[in-house]
Amino acid sequence: MEKSNGLRVILFPLPLQGCINPMFQLARILHSRGFSITVIHTRYNAPKASSHPLFTFLEIQDGLSEAETSTHDVTHLLMLLNRSCESPFRDCLTKLLHSETEEEKQRISCLIHDAGWIFTQPVAQSLNLPRLVLNTYKVSFFVGHFVLPKLRRERYLPLQGSIMYQEQDEPVEEFPPLRKKDLIRILDEETELLDSYLDMILETTKASSGIIFVSSCEELDQDSLIKARKDFQVPIFAIGPSHSYFPGSSSSLFTPDQTCIQWLDKQEDKSVIYVSFGSFVTISESELLEIAWGLRKTNQPFLWVVRVGMVNGTKWIETIPEELMERLMEKGKIVKWAPQQDVLKHRATGGFLTHNGWNSTVESVCEGVPMICLPSVWDQLLNARYVSDGWMVGLHLEGKFERSEISRVVRKLLLEPEGEVIRERMELLAEKVGRSVKQNGSAYRSLEHLVDRISSF
């Protein structure tokens, strides 16, 4: 850490794995620039304070029941959190601003919160505290997804779920590079509850003192950043890929199985397909079995992450028949969680079968690992289109949880000439994005501007 600059920043992450990691990456960056860090967090999915001894942690009550915390309806969960956390957050922030302890006598410069918190604007305004919004999406998704309520109101797809087969691959002009079949999945997935939530996020973000895109840079989002600056009319800082500033650091809510790395050490270069669907996606028992058979049919080594509770109706992988399990273990390794950045960095990793969450997508790009796209919901569908159709650094399974298709695409990526061309493209993209965080790169310059902005409040 640079010498303390006497300024303290308050961070308020959403309690989801995909939001906690980027917020703590930003915390480490700002701490290295001399800022002191205080993290306000919910009881639900509380971060491990012991992993960050240089930060101050303040917990607020979230009022969630055990049943509510186990829901897979993210929109419903976020609305519950926004309703129940406003009062405890206000009390905590007010107390912090009037604290007389030595540690907190430093001037509090600003609040940085995840875009999904929608009650923070009036709270910060009443306390005269500048407020920056942190965003974990790809810029093009964040800018574009505010059109969804309008598309629903106008019944853009009047026969949702029943468009003609030949229309499925037609582009959505209002939200490129999505195709109509992607938009159906997004509109079917969500409800009117989400529409009002999006409207509030838009309003809250426009009223902020700036937007931080922690996992995007000009090299990945140039056109969308131009549009974002025009649409929002506030300073925008695209400082990502933020994990590159402190490689290997993680704020995982899960305990990674470190034996992955020793297992990878025994495999040949670029021979392993890494399979992970992130921290929230769930699959059915039949989908689990299709992936299992598909991986076995490739005859390639694989590292497969199956979270506890990821398979609906089962605890872990006990529904995989014993005979198939024995055959899987001849070539692969199955774990409950993996140190993903280390896995993607490893010389043996040749491809990544992914749900295309934005954090995972960017980590794969940074390490030059081509992807096989199997998106499930929401922004994953757009990220996957960029990977397969935009940058052409991966192959798309088009939602097919089919053993023969999984096997065919894995072998194509790892063993066939088309896979080699994709890998070469990915290596060029990785080099380009890697330059962004180096001195005078676009993300580096954006970070300098962010530090200046926070210091000026």
**Secondary structure category:** alpha/beta
Q: Looking at this structure, what is the CATH superfamily of the largest domain?
A: Glycogen Phosphorylase B
Straight-line N-to-C gap: 21 Å
Arithmetic mean of pLDDT: 91
Low-pLDDT runs: none
Shape: globular
CATH class of the largest domain: Alpha Beta
Write the layout of secondary structure elements.
Elements: E1 7-12, H1 17-32, E2 36-42, E3 56-60, H2 66-69, H3 74-97, E4 107-114, H4 120-126, E5 131-135, H5 139-144, H6 148-153, H7 180-189, H8 192-206, E6 211-213, H9 218-232, E7 236-238, H10 259-265, E8 272-276, H11 285-298, E9 302-305, H12 322-331, E10 332-335, H13 340-345, E11 349-354, H14 358-366, E12 371-373, H15 379-390, E13 394-396, H16 403-415, H17 417-436, H18 442-456
Parallel strand pairs: 1-2, 1-4, 2-3, 4-5, 5-6, 6-7, 8-9, 8-11, 9-10, 11-12, 12-13
Which key phrases capture this entry?
457 residues; alpha/beta; Rossmann fold; seven-stranded parallel β-sheet; six-stranded parallel β-sheet; 18 helices
Structure description:
Helix 11 (285-298) runs parallel beside helix 16. The chain is an alpha/beta fold. It is built from 18 helices and 13 strands. Helix 14 links the parallel strand 11 (349-354) and strand 12. It folds into 2 domains: 7-245 and 437-456, Rossmann fold (3-Layer(aba) Sandwich); 259-434, Glycogen Phosphorylase B (Rossmann fold), CATH 3.40.50.2000. The protein starts with 6 loop residues before the first strand and ends with a helix. The chain is globular. 46% of the residues lie in helices and 14% in strands. The relative contact order is 0.11. A 7-stranded parallel β-sheet has the order 3-2-1-4-5-6-7, sandwiched between helices. A 6-stranded parallel β-sheet has the order 10-9-8-11-12-13, sandwiched between helices.
